[in-house]
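Lecture 7 notes: from sequence to structure.
We start with the chain below.
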Amino acid sequence: MSALTLRGARRLAVALALGGGLLVAAGCGSGTGVTGDVDNGKTQFANLCASCHTLAASGKPPSNIGPNLDDSFRASRQAGIDDAQFQGVVHRWITEAQKPMPRDLVTGDDARDVAAYVASVAATGEAADESVIFKAETTPEIPDPSRQELAPPGP
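Predicted structure tokens for the same chain:
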């Protein structure tokens, strides 16, 4: 091999090693991926959000004003969506709230904490199985074999 080819191979090896290291570092962190003070989030939720939103883990009575958060997240949780994604969705709903939800009700670290709390408890425990409004149903299975494989096209 020529010196030019060896130099190119070394650069490629260094780039691959750095890329692999970044991928490993990106995968590190907490098991749930949720960031924030969940205890503060629970307190903030109970004081500011539970009057409109139902969340079984909050210990507050159900409300019919805003969406039931257990019902809202049940199907996604059953599909395997992780807590970090739930937290991102909730945080965005808080920061970009649509009427009648007040946009500046929870801000800054408190908004992040509320999102972390909701992400960690929505549609879990007893709330994972039973809706306040609707009976929980499991997602239907995909037929095996799929419909496309059942009958070949005929004349």
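Points to note: The first helix runs from residue 3 to 27. Residues 129 and 136 are 6 Å apart (CA to CA).
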